[in-house]
Amino acid sequence: MYTGIKRFLLPIAEPLLVPTGAILVGMLLFAGFVALVGQSPPEVFLTLYQGGFGSSFSLQNTLVLASPLILTGLAVAIPAQAGMIMIGGEGALALGALLAGVVGYALHDNSALVAQIGMLTAGALTGALWFALSGWLRNYRGVNETISSLLLSYIGIALLNYCIQGPLKDPASTNNPATHPIGDAHMIGNIPGMDVHYGLIIGIVFALIIWLVLKYTTVGLALRAVGGNPRAAQMAGLNVNYWVIGAAAVGGAAAGLSGAIEVAAVQGSANSAVVAGYGFTGILVAFIARQNPFAVIPIAILFGGIDAAGGMLQRRLDMPDATVIVFQGILFVVILASDTLLGRFRFFKPTTTKPVIKGTES
Protein backbone atom coordinates (compact mmCIF):
# COMPACT_ATOMS: atom_id res chain seq x y z
CA MET A 1 0.00 0.00 0.00
CA TYR A 2 2.84 2.40 0.86
CA THR A 3 4.46 1.72 -2.53
CA GLY A 4 1.20 2.56 -4.32
CA ILE A 5 0.78 5.83 -2.44
CA LYS A 6 4.39 6.73 -3.13
CA ARG A 7 4.01 6.08 -6.86
CA PHE A 8 0.91 8.30 -6.89
CA LEU A 9 2.43 11.17 -4.93
CA LEU A 10 5.94 11.33 -6.37
CA PRO A 11 4.97 12.60 -9.87
CA ILE A 12 2.92 15.35 -8.17
CA ALA A 13 5.45 16.19 -5.46
CA GLU A 14 8.36 17.19 -7.68
CA PRO A 15 6.52 19.84 -9.77
CA LEU A 16 5.23 21.37 -6.50
CA LEU A 17 8.28 21.14 -4.24
CA VAL A 18 10.90 22.35 -6.74
CA PRO A 19 9.11 25.66 -7.54
CA THR A 20 8.28 26.13 -3.85
CA GLY A 21 11.94 25.73 -2.98
CA ALA A 22 12.84 28.16 -5.77
CA ILE A 23 10.44 30.76 -4.36
CA LEU A 24 12.08 30.41 -0.94
CA VAL A 25 15.52 30.86 -2.52
CA GLY A 26 14.21 33.93 -4.38
CA MET A 27 12.92 35.37 -1.12
CA LEU A 28 16.33 34.85 0.50
CA LEU A 29 18.07 36.60 -2.40
CA PHE A 30 15.60 39.47 -2.21
CA ALA A 31 16.21 39.67 1.54
CA GLY A 32 19.92 40.03 0.79
CA PHE A 33 19.17 42.82 -1.68
CA VAL A 34 16.99 44.58 0.91
CA ALA A 35 19.72 44.32 3.53
CA LEU A 36 22.27 45.78 1.10
CA VAL A 37 20.15 48.89 0.60
CA GLY A 38 19.91 49.39 4.36
CA GLN A 39 16.42 48.07 5.08
CA SER A 40 15.21 45.36 7.42
CA PRO A 41 14.16 42.24 5.45
CA PRO A 42 11.53 41.13 8.01
CA GLU A 43 9.98 44.61 7.97
CA VAL A 44 9.94 44.67 4.16
CA PHE A 45 8.29 41.24 3.92
CA LEU A 46 5.75 42.23 6.57
CA THR A 47 4.95 45.38 4.60
CA LEU A 48 4.59 43.35 1.40
CA TYR A 49 2.13 41.05 3.13
CA GLN A 50 0.15 43.88 4.69
CA GLY A 51 0.04 45.81 1.43
CA GLY A 52 -1.18 42.83 -0.58
CA PHE A 53 -3.18 40.63 1.79
CA GLY A 54 -3.15 42.18 5.28
CA SER A 55 -6.58 43.78 5.21
CA SER A 56 -9.87 43.63 3.36
CA PHE A 57 -8.94 46.76 1.41
CA SER A 58 -5.52 45.36 0.48
CA LEU A 59 -6.97 42.02 -0.59
CA GLN A 60 -9.59 43.63 -2.79
CA ASN A 61 -6.94 45.86 -4.36
CA THR A 62 -4.87 42.74 -5.00
CA LEU A 63 -7.78 40.99 -6.71
CA VAL A 64 -8.41 44.01 -8.94
CA LEU A 65 -4.77 43.94 -10.05
CA ALA A 66 -4.85 40.15 -10.47
CA SER A 67 -7.76 40.31 -12.92
CA PRO A 68 -5.73 41.48 -15.96
CA LEU A 69 -2.76 39.34 -14.90
CA ILE A 70 -4.83 36.16 -15.16
CA LEU A 71 -5.76 36.97 -18.75
CA THR A 72 -2.32 38.21 -19.83
CA GLY A 73 -0.82 35.12 -18.20
CA LEU A 74 -3.14 32.99 -20.33
CA ALA A 75 -2.01 34.96 -23.39
CA VAL A 76 1.41 33.37 -22.87
CA ALA A 77 0.30 29.99 -21.50
CA ILE A 78 -2.14 29.07 -24.28
CA PRO A 79 0.21 29.52 -27.28
CA ALA A 80 2.89 27.68 -25.27
CA GLN A 81 0.77 24.53 -25.55
CA ALA A 82 1.51 24.60 -29.28
CA GLY A 83 5.22 25.23 -28.73
CA MET A 84 5.19 29.02 -29.07
CA ILE A 85 6.69 31.61 -26.75
CA MET A 86 4.66 34.77 -27.35
CA ILE A 87 5.38 37.81 -25.21
CA GLY A 88 3.33 40.50 -26.94
CA GLY A 89 0.38 40.59 -24.57
CA GLU A 90 0.85 44.28 -23.80
CA GLY A 91 0.21 45.26 -27.42
CA ALA A 92 -2.85 43.04 -27.74
CA LEU A 93 -4.16 44.48 -24.46
CA ALA A 94 -3.64 48.04 -25.73
CA LEU A 95 -5.47 47.43 -29.01
CA GLY A 96 -8.21 45.48 -27.26
CA ALA A 97 -8.73 48.45 -24.97
CA LEU A 98 -8.76 50.86 -27.92
CA LEU A 99 -11.42 48.94 -29.85
CA ALA A 100 -13.46 48.39 -26.70
CA GLY A 101 -13.47 52.13 -26.05
CA VAL A 102 -14.58 52.87 -29.61
CA VAL A 103 -17.33 50.23 -29.58
CA GLY A 104 -18.49 51.21 -26.09
CA TYR A 105 -18.97 54.80 -27.17
CA ALA A 106 -20.65 53.76 -30.43
CA LEU A 107 -23.17 51.66 -28.45
CA HIS A 108 -23.90 54.29 -25.80
CA ASP A 109 -27.55 54.50 -26.93
CA ASN A 110 -28.06 50.77 -26.37
CA SER A 111 -28.60 48.87 -23.14
CA ALA A 112 -25.71 48.30 -20.75
CA LEU A 113 -25.64 44.56 -21.48
CA VAL A 114 -25.42 45.08 -25.25
CA ALA A 115 -22.64 47.65 -24.83
CA GLN A 116 -20.68 45.45 -22.43
CA ILE A 117 -20.92 42.37 -24.65
CA GLY A 118 -19.91 44.51 -27.63
CA MET A 119 -16.86 45.89 -25.83
CA LEU A 120 -15.67 42.51 -24.58
CA THR A 121 -16.20 40.90 -27.98
CA ALA A 122 -14.39 43.72 -29.80
CA GLY A 123 -11.45 43.53 -27.42
CA ALA A 124 -11.15 39.74 -27.66
CA LEU A 125 -11.40 39.69 -31.47
CA THR A 126 -8.82 42.46 -31.82
CA GLY A 127 -6.35 40.66 -29.58
CA ALA A 128 -7.00 37.38 -31.40
CA LEU A 129 -6.24 38.91 -34.81
CA TRP A 130 -3.11 40.64 -33.47
CA PHE A 131 -1.66 37.41 -32.05
CA ALA A 132 -2.78 35.36 -35.05
CA LEU A 133 -0.55 37.59 -37.16
CA SER A 134 2.49 36.37 -35.21
CA GLY A 135 1.35 32.76 -35.65
CA TRP A 136 0.94 33.32 -39.38
CA LEU A 137 4.38 34.94 -39.68
CA ARG A 138 5.93 31.98 -37.89
CA ASN A 139 4.32 29.30 -40.03
CA TYR A 140 4.35 30.93 -43.45
CA ARG A 141 7.37 33.23 -43.29
CA GLY A 142 9.59 31.55 -40.70
CA VAL A 143 9.64 34.59 -38.41
CA ASN A 144 10.34 33.79 -34.77
CA GLU A 145 7.08 34.35 -32.87
CA THR A 146 8.83 35.66 -29.76
CA ILE A 147 10.47 38.47 -31.70
CA SER A 148 7.45 39.24 -33.88
CA SER A 149 5.01 39.31 -30.96
CA LEU A 150 7.30 41.64 -28.99
CA LEU A 151 7.74 44.01 -31.93
CA LEU A 152 4.01 43.93 -32.67
CA SER A 153 3.43 44.77 -29.02
CA TYR A 154 5.28 48.06 -29.38
CA ILE A 155 3.40 48.76 -32.60
CA GLY A 156 0.10 48.13 -30.82
CA ILE A 157 1.00 50.51 -27.99
CA ALA A 158 2.07 53.14 -30.55
CA LEU A 159 -1.24 52.75 -32.40
CA LEU A 160 -3.15 53.27 -29.15
CA ASN A 161 -1.20 56.44 -28.36
CA TYR A 162 -1.61 57.78 -31.89
CA CYS A 163 -5.36 57.18 -31.95
CA ILE A 164 -6.12 58.64 -28.52
CA GLN A 165 -4.03 61.72 -29.29
CA GLY A 166 -5.28 62.06 -32.84
CA PRO A 167 -8.32 60.82 -34.76
CA LEU A 168 -10.14 59.19 -31.81
CA LYS A 169 -9.36 61.76 -29.13
CA ASP A 170 -12.17 63.14 -27.04
CA PRO A 171 -11.79 66.95 -27.23
CA ALA A 172 -12.71 67.17 -23.55
CA SER A 173 -9.72 65.02 -22.52
CA THR A 174 -7.03 67.69 -22.51
CA ASN A 175 -4.58 66.64 -19.79
CA ASN A 176 -5.04 62.89 -20.29
CA PRO A 177 -5.88 62.10 -23.94
CA ALA A 178 -8.51 59.41 -24.27
CA THR A 179 -11.36 58.18 -26.43
CA HIS A 180 -14.89 59.36 -25.73
CA PRO A 181 -16.16 57.93 -22.42
CA ILE A 182 -18.43 54.90 -22.57
CA GLY A 183 -20.64 56.31 -19.79
CA ASP A 184 -21.09 55.20 -16.20
CA ALA A 185 -24.27 53.30 -17.08
CA HIS A 186 -22.31 50.97 -19.37
CA MET A 187 -19.48 50.22 -16.95
CA ILE A 188 -19.07 46.66 -15.68
CA GLY A 189 -20.09 46.64 -12.02
CA ASN A 190 -18.57 45.14 -8.90
CA ILE A 191 -19.11 41.76 -7.33
CA PRO A 192 -21.76 42.12 -4.60
CA GLY A 193 -20.20 42.89 -1.23
CA MET A 194 -16.78 43.59 -2.73
CA ASP A 195 -14.98 46.49 -4.32
CA VAL A 196 -13.79 44.15 -7.09
CA HIS A 197 -15.25 44.24 -10.60
CA TYR A 198 -16.67 41.24 -12.45
CA GLY A 199 -13.57 41.13 -14.65
CA LEU A 200 -12.00 38.91 -11.99
CA ILE A 201 -14.79 36.34 -12.43
CA ILE A 202 -14.44 36.53 -16.21
CA GLY A 203 -10.70 35.87 -15.98
CA ILE A 204 -11.08 32.94 -13.56
CA VAL A 205 -13.83 31.33 -15.65
CA PHE A 206 -11.77 31.79 -18.82
CA ALA A 207 -8.75 30.13 -17.17
CA LEU A 208 -10.81 27.20 -15.85
CA ILE A 209 -12.43 26.58 -19.22
CA ILE A 210 -9.05 26.58 -20.97
CA TRP A 211 -7.62 24.25 -18.32
CA LEU A 212 -10.49 21.78 -18.68
CA VAL A 213 -10.30 21.86 -22.47
CA LEU A 214 -6.54 21.28 -22.49
CA LYS A 215 -6.66 18.53 -19.88
CA TYR A 216 -9.75 16.54 -20.79
CA THR A 217 -10.44 17.00 -24.52
CA THR A 218 -8.84 16.00 -27.80
CA VAL A 219 -8.11 19.68 -28.41
CA GLY A 220 -5.56 19.64 -25.60
CA LEU A 221 -4.09 16.39 -26.88
CA ALA A 222 -3.73 17.82 -30.38
CA LEU A 223 -2.08 21.01 -29.08
CA ARG A 224 0.40 19.03 -27.01
CA ALA A 225 1.21 16.88 -30.05
CA VAL A 226 1.79 19.97 -32.19
CA GLY A 227 3.88 21.62 -29.50
CA GLY A 228 5.90 18.49 -28.77
CA ASN A 229 6.73 17.40 -32.32
CA PRO A 230 5.13 19.33 -35.20
CA ARG A 231 6.47 16.94 -37.84
CA ALA A 232 5.08 13.88 -36.10
CA ALA A 233 1.77 15.69 -35.56
CA GLN A 234 1.60 16.49 -39.28
CA MET A 235 2.32 12.85 -40.15
CA ALA A 236 -0.53 11.87 -37.82
CA GLY A 237 -2.90 13.99 -39.91
CA LEU A 238 -3.04 17.19 -37.87
CA ASN A 239 -3.08 20.52 -39.68
CA VAL A 240 -0.17 22.13 -37.81
CA ASN A 241 -0.77 25.57 -39.32
CA TYR A 242 -4.37 25.54 -38.14
CA TRP A 243 -3.47 24.58 -34.58
CA VAL A 244 -0.56 26.99 -34.26
CA ILE A 245 -2.46 30.02 -35.55
CA GLY A 246 -5.55 28.98 -33.57
CA ALA A 247 -3.62 28.71 -30.30
CA ALA A 248 -2.03 32.10 -30.95
CA ALA A 249 -5.45 33.62 -31.64
CA VAL A 250 -6.98 32.27 -28.42
CA GLY A 251 -4.02 33.60 -26.43
CA GLY A 252 -4.42 36.98 -28.09
CA ALA A 253 -8.14 36.94 -27.33
CA ALA A 254 -7.30 36.61 -23.63
CA ALA A 255 -4.97 39.63 -23.77
CA GLY A 256 -7.43 41.70 -25.80
CA LEU A 257 -10.20 40.77 -23.37
CA SER A 258 -8.10 42.04 -20.47
CA GLY A 259 -7.76 45.39 -22.24
CA ALA A 260 -11.50 45.57 -22.86
CA ILE A 261 -12.18 44.85 -19.18
CA GLU A 262 -9.78 47.60 -18.13
CA VAL A 263 -11.84 50.04 -20.21
CA ALA A 264 -15.26 48.68 -19.32
CA ALA A 265 -14.65 48.16 -15.60
CA VAL A 266 -11.87 50.54 -14.52
CA GLN A 267 -10.99 53.40 -16.87
CA GLY A 268 -14.26 54.18 -18.64
CA SER A 269 -12.37 55.04 -21.84
CA ALA A 270 -9.29 53.96 -23.74
CA ASN A 271 -6.30 55.96 -22.55
CA SER A 272 -2.61 55.52 -21.87
CA ALA A 273 -3.31 54.29 -18.33
CA VAL A 274 -4.33 50.87 -19.67
CA VAL A 275 -0.67 50.30 -20.67
CA ALA A 276 0.47 49.57 -17.12
CA GLY A 277 2.78 46.62 -17.72
CA TYR A 278 0.14 43.91 -17.24
CA GLY A 279 1.18 42.20 -20.46
CA PHE A 280 4.81 41.97 -19.40
CA THR A 281 3.99 40.83 -15.86
CA GLY A 282 1.74 38.20 -17.43
CA ILE A 283 4.88 36.65 -18.95
CA LEU A 284 6.27 36.09 -15.44
CA VAL A 285 2.94 34.72 -14.27
CA ALA A 286 2.75 32.18 -17.11
CA PHE A 287 6.33 30.99 -16.74
CA ILE A 288 6.11 30.62 -12.97
CA ALA A 289 2.83 28.73 -13.45
CA ARG A 290 4.70 26.52 -15.95
CA GLN A 291 2.15 27.41 -18.64
CA ASN A 292 -0.62 25.69 -16.65
CA PRO A 293 -3.86 27.71 -17.03
CA PHE A 294 -5.14 26.55 -13.64
CA ALA A 295 -1.91 27.53 -11.86
CA VAL A 296 -2.05 30.94 -13.56
CA ILE A 297 -4.88 31.95 -11.20
CA PRO A 298 -3.04 31.73 -7.83
CA ILE A 299 0.22 33.03 -9.33
CA ALA A 300 -1.61 36.05 -10.77
CA ILE A 301 -3.13 36.74 -7.35
CA LEU A 302 0.32 36.49 -5.77
CA PHE A 303 1.78 38.96 -8.25
CA GLY A 304 -1.26 41.19 -7.87
CA GLY A 305 -0.50 41.31 -4.15
CA ILE A 306 3.15 42.16 -4.77
CA ASP A 307 2.13 44.96 -7.15
CA ALA A 308 -0.45 46.25 -4.66
CA ALA A 309 2.18 46.45 -1.93
CA GLY A 310 4.47 48.75 -3.94
CA GLY A 311 2.74 51.90 -2.74
CA MET A 312 2.89 50.85 0.89
CA LEU A 313 6.62 50.17 0.62
CA GLN A 314 7.05 53.69 -0.67
CA ARG A 315 4.90 55.31 2.02
CA ARG A 316 6.08 53.38 5.07
CA LEU A 317 9.72 52.59 4.31
CA ASP A 318 10.54 55.29 1.76
CA MET A 319 11.56 52.63 -0.76
CA PRO A 320 10.89 53.09 -4.50
CA ASP A 321 7.74 51.31 -5.65
CA ALA A 322 9.98 49.70 -8.30
CA THR A 323 11.29 47.52 -5.47
CA VAL A 324 8.48 45.08 -6.18
CA ILE A 325 9.72 44.79 -9.78
CA VAL A 326 13.13 43.73 -8.43
CA PHE A 327 11.39 41.11 -6.29
CA GLN A 328 9.40 39.81 -9.28
CA GLY A 329 12.52 39.67 -11.43
CA ILE A 330 14.45 37.68 -8.82
CA LEU A 331 11.60 35.20 -8.47
CA PHE A 332 11.38 34.84 -12.25
CA VAL A 333 15.09 34.12 -12.72
CA VAL A 334 15.30 31.67 -9.82
CA ILE A 335 12.20 29.73 -10.87
CA LEU A 336 13.42 29.49 -14.46
CA ALA A 337 16.76 28.21 -13.18
CA SER A 338 14.96 25.61 -11.07
CA ASP A 339 13.62 24.01 -14.26
CA THR A 340 17.04 22.43 -14.75
CA LEU A 341 16.55 20.50 -11.51
CA LEU A 342 13.37 18.75 -12.60
CA GLY A 343 13.98 15.03 -13.04
CA ARG A 344 17.39 15.07 -11.37
CA PHE A 345 16.36 14.03 -7.86
CA ARG A 346 16.48 10.26 -7.46
CA PHE A 347 14.08 10.48 -4.53
CA PHE A 348 11.24 11.60 -6.81
CA LYS A 349 11.74 8.67 -9.19
CA PRO A 350 9.51 5.68 -8.45
CA THR A 351 11.48 2.56 -7.61
CA THR A 352 11.04 -0.36 -9.97
CA THR A 353 11.72 -3.99 -9.24
CA LYS A 354 12.90 -6.43 -11.86
CA PRO A 355 10.56 -9.34 -12.44
CA VAL A 356 11.87 -12.68 -11.36
CA ILE A 357 11.92 -15.25 -14.17
CA LYS A 358 11.17 -18.82 -13.18
CA GLY A 359 14.16 -21.04 -13.01
CA THR A 360 16.64 -18.20 -12.45
CA GLU A 361 16.23 -17.93 -8.68
CA SER A 362 19.48 -18.50 -6.85
Description:
The chain has 362 residues and is an all-alpha fold. 71% of the residues lie in helices and 0% in strands. The longest helix has 35 residues, at 2-36.
Q: Share of helix among residues?
A: over 70%
- Extract low-pLDDT stretches: none
Structural class, from secondary structure content?
mainly alpha
Count of DSSP H/I helices: 14
Task: Tell me the layout of helices and strands.
Blueprint: H1 2-36, H2 41-53, H3 56-80, H4 89-106, H5 112-141, H6 145-165, H7 199-216, H8 218-228, H9 230-235, H10 240-267, H11 278-288, H12 293-308, H13 310-317, H14 323-338
Helix pairs in contact: 1-2, 1-14, 2-3, 2-12, 2-13, 3-7, 3-10, 3-11, 3-12, 4-5, 4-6, 4-10, 4-11, 5-6, 5-10, 7-8, 7-12, 8-10, 11-12
Summarize the structure.
The chain has 14 helices and no strands. The chain is mainly alpha-helical.
Provide tags for this entry.
14 helices, single chain, mainly alpha
